[in-house]
Amino acid sequence: MLAVGLVLLLAAGLGQGTTRGVLREELLLRPLPVGDVAAVFQFRTRWDADLQQGAVSHYRLFPKALGQLVAAHGVRELHLALTQGFWSTQSWGQPPLGAPAGAELWVWFQDTVPDVDKAWKELSNILSGIFCASLNFIDSTNTVTPTASFKPLGVANGTDHRLLRYAVLPREVVCTENLTPWKKLLPCGSKAGLAVLLKAERLFHSSYHSQAVHIRPICRDASCLAVSWELRQTLTVVFDSFTSGQGKKDWSLFKMFSRTLTDACPLASESKVYVDISPKNKEKQLLEVTPTPTSVHEAIVQGDKTTYAVYDLLSPVLFNTSRSLNVQLKWKRPEDSSELSTPIMHAQRYVSGYGLQTGEISTLIYNTHPYRAFPVILLETVPWYLRLYVHTLTIITKGKENKPSYMHYQPAQDRKRPHLLEMLIQLPANSATKITIQFERALLKWTEYPPDPNHGFYVSSSVLSALVPSVIAMKDVNVEESPLFTSLFPSSDGSSYFLRLYTEPLLVNLPTPDFSMPYNVICLTCTVVAVCYGSFYNLLTRTFHVEEPSRGGLAKRLANVIRRLRGVPPI
Amino acid sequence: MAAPLVLVVLAAVTVRAALYRSSLAAFIAERVEVASPLNAWKRVVEGLALLDLGVSPYSGAIFHETPLIIYLFHFLIEYAELVFMITDILTAVALYLAIQDYNKVVFKKQKLLIELDKYAPDVAELIRTPMEMHYIPLKVALVYLLNPYTVMSCVAKSTCAISNTVIAFFILATIRGSAFLSAVFLALATYQSLYPITLFAPALLYLLQRQFIPIKPKSKSFWLFTMQYAALYLCSLVVVICLSFFLLNSWDFIPSVYGFILSVPDLTPNIGLFWYFFAEMFEHFSLFFVCVFQINVFFYTIPLAVKLKEHPVFFMFVQLAIISIFKSYPTVGDVALYMAFLPVWSHLYRFLRNIFILSCMLIACSLLFPVLWHLWIFAGSANSNFYYAITLTFNIGQLLWAADTPHVLEHFHVWMKRMFTSF
């Protein structure tokens, strides 16, 4: 009897165990070429349950708020990023996880969703509540359906782009109020594990801050017969350690976060800190990390071989000597005028032209690869009040016209939807490609301007998605085993890797009416219309008669008598 | 008589060709006074580009031309400059011929009245001599072709010139008495810019008068002819619209062209009254005021038809002026069309009140448009109110002019016949 009970309990425990989630947490510290330090936190909850069936009622690691959202709105994949600042690819190298300035949301819906637009609207409103962000401002005027730029990152059987919605709010300001709900979704909160480092006062005292949530279905095992759900919470922050460290490029965890690590999150099955110690020039190891890492890991990230010092917070060795882990990095000797290794692809964008009538958006895309050409998909979303003229679109590479091999253009409709321009452009080796398009600035209704109209209007970043040729051939690695920062984007083949870059958002001024004038304008214009009405009414009702000159009335006669006396001709 | 006309045409072509080659062409094409969202050449090119990309030109908010225009330029895009010069010349020639015919009629009528001794004896100086009437058609062509407004809208390749040509042909057909052609051209003009529908009334009046059908609601022939003309007009309109449908195989152009004209969503500044008014309008009342403003074009037609039934051509002129004042996206090309008629009524000017002030107003405003635009948009030293003020003044000038001439006409005719009327 007892044995049977034990077996039953065990079975129940096992059953529980199969749908239990797995949490992995990871921090990647990467010194950037100019002396800044990028810290990338990734928290990955993997849940072997099918959220879509709606049968799930018991949530453990996976946050219930998001799980229910996915189930209720037929979400297949959800990517939300809130970013403050701009990742400067030119000086920082390629971003570990690109995101445009402001808020970015893109969602793939299930094909069972009857009304995608309605689901999208509801979803953005709920997310707005969950993350305390102004995502409720996502409406048809800033939502687009890209055809090529955004492919599902998880398992998908069919990519009908009508199930995709993409929106960016470039004006969104990211702050503590967005960070707190994001931290609350973590299984350990900010009480234990890597999340203790996430202190708002340090995170927002930085050059770049980007937090994101990615939900996607992934293969449960190699055979891929069932799906698991993956929630990835990522946070990228760039500290300017050079200026804050009195001209030294050395840094430590404590210096950056004013905290140190004491333990791993008890719920996590893996908790690691990676420090990028790849030698920049081959001969000498220039930097030194303390304490000694538990292991060294080599991986091919973004097409290049990189070496990482790994601290496994779950290994007991680490906390033997001291109670806390404070990773430090020292440069052995000041790096002699470090020449910046330019990234293979980078881009910039600007507005040109003067005055408030017309203008031109120029995008420059560089391919610095010495001998390989590769294609890039450019996605531009321009709000309707900048009226794009697609016949003025020019793409020039090395002084020659470069015809896009694929082009999708959806013109804007006033107050309804934005312009969407997607192009597949071939970037020849070692070239700069300039894309220009002219626009006209619209005059809006006075109620359509934001409270500070002369600040200007933001145009969201354009998105560049490319398969960039890698320097070193990549090997197929097991996604579950490899570090998290290598495994968000699916790798295609060994010779190239997927890269998504975001350009600068633009700030464009529009002509403004005088906001103090509505009553005056209404009065004056209506007066003109009334004058017109009056004149025509006068004409239409008056009849002309010729009156013979008569002697006039008594008054006239009197006046004439007086005039005659004065010696003036009578009237 | 043809020689001076050819001379005028040559001069006009030379001016236009010179301007097309000059650096001014780009500047003029960007002017908001010359090119409105409805008829800017840049938007026509954009429509063609969209068509080439396989996107419906009406799926965006840029292109608002009719399908026939886009197909016209689909084939003639290379010769656009030539097309616009030819349309201008055709307009001028049509107006020339129309006014020539009209003057013959007027002269005959005057002769008849003199023979019947209906004029007062002391109006001899007001009786129009064949000599001065002889040059009126030429003056009309001259005023149309060499008017800076026409030249600019031709150089800017504003499709307004094409609407003007259609209207000119409509006037010619009407004055020649061809009810069928008149209806066809009226339908084309309506199709092109909607507002010429109001010209139905003067055309009908003229045709009735020409056929000596009394304009009385009780007369059967009056109704018969009206029905005939209306049916012709509607049939041609339906044919044109269906043709457009078959060209693009969609009805998208209806909301994109006529919806755009009527609901005024694009508030790009122009010389009209709409843009700033609706930019400053409270959202709640927007629809109401759109209706109030749009009705102005149609509102005066019936009363004017009653009042000016003796002078249908003059009525046509007044109606054209009203359209150019109250249309939602007016350009100087529209103003140029009714201005071309001014020489026809040159004998009335001595009675016109404030003619000097009004002319000065119009000229000063025309010169100030680019100045204030520059100050607002480029220099940033003025704001939108400056430009608005000048559009307001320009419209008041036009309006007083348009509303004053009918007075004078009435006055003139009463004066001429006063012996008759006073006894």
Automatic annotation (TrEMBL), chain A:
Domain of life: Eukaryota
Coiled coil: none
Pfam families attached to this UniProt entry: Gpi16 (PF04113)
InterPro entries reported in the protein's UniProt record: PIG-T
GO MF term (any one): GPI anchor binding
One cellular component term from this protein's GO annotations in UniProt: GPI-anchor transamidase complex
The protein's name in its UniProt record: Phosphatidylinositol glycan anchor biosynthesis class T
Biological source species: Gallus gallus (Chicken)
Automatic annotation (TrEMBL), chain B:
Bilayer-spanning residue ranges: 68-99, 166-187, 193-209, 230-251, 257-278, 285-306, 351-373, 385-403
UniProt keywords, alphabetically: Endoplasmic reticulum, GPI-anchor biosynthesis, Membrane, Signal, Transmembrane, Transmembrane helix
UniProt entry tagged with the keyword Hydrolase: no
Signal peptide (from-to): 1-17
Coiled-coil ranges per UniProt: none
Gene Ontology molecular functions: GPI anchor binding; GPI-anchor transamidase activity
GO biological process: attachment of GPI anchor to protein; GPI anchor biosynthetic process; regulation of receptor signaling pathway via JAK-STAT
GO CC, alphabetical: GPI-anchor transamidase complex; plasma membrane
Entries under InterPro entries matching the protein: PIG-U
Compartment(s) of residence: Endoplasmic reticulum membrane
Topology of the protein relative to the lipid bilayer: Multi-pass membrane protein
One Pfam family here: PIG-U
Family according to the record: Belongs to the PIGU family.
Name recorded for this polypeptide: Phosphatidylinositol glycan anchor biosynthesis class U
Organism listed in the record: Gallus gallus (Chicken)
Gene field: PIGU
